[in-house]
Amino acid sequence: MKIAITGATGLVGAGLVRHLTRQGHEIHPLVRRPPLAAAHEIFWDPQKDEIDHAALEGMDAVIHLAGENLSGYWSAAKKERIMASRSRGTRLLSQALAVLHRKPGLLISASAIGFYGDRGAEALDEFSARGEGFLADVCMEWENAADPAREAGIRVLHSRFGIILDPGGGALARLLPLLHLGLGGRLGSGRQYWSWITMQDVHSALAFCLDHPDLEGAVNFTAPGAVTNAEFTRAAARFLHRPAFFAVPAFALRLVMGEMAQEMLLSSTRAEPKKLLASGFRFDHTDLRAAFAAVLGPNLPAR
User: Fold this and answer.
1) Range of the domain at 148
2) Contact indicator for 228, 191 with CB cutoff of 8 Å
3) For residues 196-235, b (16+ Cβ closer than 10 Å) or e, as one string?
């Protein structure tokens, strides 16, 4: 397939490009600088509403991963960038795809399980209602921005990512230094559910979606069987042979990180991958301790 990808150098995108290239696909990254023809690059600039329509002609699929990093203190300006980068970029891309003469068969547009909000121990699947909060609002705008592509007859899939286990970024990367120092432990009460997935399964699931036309709309990218934050940190500490005695009070997290701490670290989202499982996708990692071995094992010093 000829596949265009935004965010091709990001946490998910860089590995995905390698994964799809190994499978024999031709990758066309979207870039915001003058494109290199030899690298099959396509120009776009979401902030200026510019995109090379002609270069998108004839793509078989488009995978849209670009967006402002959620990490950091959510000031009013930061929240505006988070919202705008997702809704504006997605709308520009989907509008461009909608008017092509040779439209792609599929647009995979990233989203997140933040759509469901803080729901305690409630089991959630792709048919569960939207929750409350800033992330839920962002995800709703993000997904709605792909409507022009959907209305033009393109199959649109929203990959609602959970916590992606990767030592190079995300929640695990922020937790690892504390764990190595023996300072890792539950965050707040530790009872909040964390729905996780390994990067390997993210890449495999995205590739799986290319060939399964039954998958469309929202699709949860989470491993079966979410765990609580206490279980998550305890499993990581045990794998690293470090204690996990220290707990970080919720008020301290809110004091230092503000709204971001509440919605990303203390919020409880127990999301299950109902659609992926029903379509026959097989996860490589469903056991958290085995997942840590796969993700962290190659990066650990010899004991």
Assistant:
1) 2-296
2) yes
3) bbbbbbbbbbbbbbbebeebbebbbbbbeebbbbbbbbbb
Q: Give residue-wise pLDDT tens across range 30-50.
A: 999 999 988 899 999 999 999
Tokens describing residue 189: 């009460």
Report which residue type is found at 280. Answer: G
Report the CATH number that the domain containing residue 186 is assigned in CATH: 3.40.50.720
Mind listing the pLDDT tens digit for each residue in 76-91? 999 999 999 999 999 9
Alpha-carbon distance 270 to 118, whole Å?
9
Residue 179 forms part of a structural domain: yes
Domain count, the chain: 1
